[in-house]
Amino acid sequence: MRWYFALLLSFSLFGLVLPAVPAEVSDDEIHDTLRIKLAGDRDVRGTQIEVAVEDGVVTLRGEVFNNKAKKRAGKMAKKHKGVKKVINELTVAPK
Q1: Angle (nearest 5°) at CA 35 between 86 and 74
Q2: Fewest C-beta in 10 Å: which of 39, 81, 82, 94?
Q3: C-beta neighbour count of 9 within 10 angstroms
């Protein structure tokens, strides 16, 4: 019985010593959560933005109302977890 508690204690201490390995974010997760964030942002919502993600590289395409929305969308994508690079191909709609 004593060996059981020693074994249990060693496994629990071993778990505390190992650093947590960050889980990699999938392209699908980045795509879905970024689209939700863009749709909910007050500067960007209402625009038609296409989000494509491949190996952590986000490409934004479509048309926005102004430069502020374009910059904001790019900044939001860059700060998103798992994004390695952003290609901002958004265009500003003519007035």
Answers
A1: 30
A2: 94
A3: 10
Domain count, the chain: 1
11 vs 59 pLDDT, higher one: 59
CB 34 within 8 A of CB 60: no
Task: Write out the residue range of the structural domain in which residue 64 sits.
Answer: 22-92
- List the structure tokens of 12: 């629990």
* 65 in a structural domain: yes
SS3 89: strand
Tokens 């879905």 sit on residue: 32
Residue 90 CA: distances (Å) to CA of 17, 29, 31: 46, 21, 16
Which amino acid, residue 23? A
